[in-house]
Request: fold
Amino acid sequence: MRTKVIGYYNSKFGELWNKSLADLIDEAIAGVLQSVRLARADIDAVFFGNMLGGILENSLFNSALIAQIMETTVPVYRLEAACASGGLAFQTATNYLKSNKNKTVLVLGAEKMTDVSVERATEALTAASAAEEQIAGLTFPGLYAMMAQVYLHQYRYDEEHLAYISVKNHYHGSLNEKAQFRKTITVDKVLASPYVAYPLKILSSSAISDGAAALILTNDPVRVKSSRSAVDVLSSEVATDCLAIKNRDSLTELYATQVAAEKAFCEAKIKRNRIDVAEVHDCFSIAEILAMEDIGFWKRGEGGKKAKEMSTQLGTNQRLVVNTSGGLKAAGHPVGATGVKQIGELFLQLTKQAKSRLVKNAHFALAHNVGGAGGMAVVSILAV
Amino acid sequence: MINPIRAWRTQKQIKHLLGKSGKIITWTTIYVTTPDFKKQAPYPVVLVEYIDGERAYGPLVNYGDCDLSIGKEVFGVLRIVRKGNSDEIIEYGIKFKPKA
Reply:
């Protein structure tokens, strides 16, 4: 039987000062089990995405923490792939289900990032970059800023083109009650915000966030039959690339995204124009533009123009709506949780539970989750 | 803490880049830094490509605004890159200077 997503829950994303990493994990597990009316004992395995627990919390062995919370002895696998940790947890879970019949698993992503200063969180995130990049003083935003510089220079765009991505995603975030930022913003406001790494500004960048998200996946026909809603996983594919961006042939393309997307569409046996709704990795505004081109939704070099047209915003009557959750920019980016939240948002869309941000008549959906500055990408396609 | 063994290992790798010329293929200016670089902010970092195709990152020093551009010729110089506490080593590394 094809793997199905039958349940989803996510905590509020944001600066959750009253919640520890364990609290967030506990909330997500309880929330998702309640949503599907399953007991902890019904779960056959757990796949947990987390990047920074070991660095910021000195808490690396969270597999046992999850076992403690769930009062279980089932396998708990921890997946670390920087910002793609959640996506990789989902992808690994789908592989597990391909080789294990009649199983029901929990996919969990969680991150606690706001207990430390911005500088300390910035340092922790550089763990996803090459040593020579760290020694040169480059930060994670700095690496994307370098890619943005080449893109803007090569295709003759400017910072205004990037700003429209943030405006769109904040609009979508305003419709998501669990988003970190629920205020709409204007292009002028984006352009007036201070730089993080030139040419990327505060409002071109995802925030430092706390949060957790959880999914229930199953290939057990009994569980599917008793579930209130179910979405098919048509494919979930992962690809990798060089860690250091200087070793790449192109600074305006993420090759890992191209490979993962090609494999995902091939496995799903559908064309790109069938996708109705997508969650793509917009850790910075330039990242969404590159993703749209690398996945093949937009032609190479068209991204700046397309971003300015706001063609992927809800309500514009276009075929494809992108980042209805608010994306990483407005929904927040607790890095280990993001990839799980992306799948969850698509589950809500395809099962018509996305309330005021619902994309009507959506049948096919795509999630795109990137690790580091493109060292890994996970692309998954869902359908109802 | 700056690890002296790691610094020594890194410096061995970069010495052949000193004095070598190349062109900026991209650059940024870092405003929000890690704790080690906080005192230097904001600072520009460039990615340089040499004529043999090798590439290296490094901060740009002794520059004017017009030097921060793709295609600008620069060369590698030895500079302090990080200073820890008074009992730690001073880490040297490669930075780049614009060619006149």
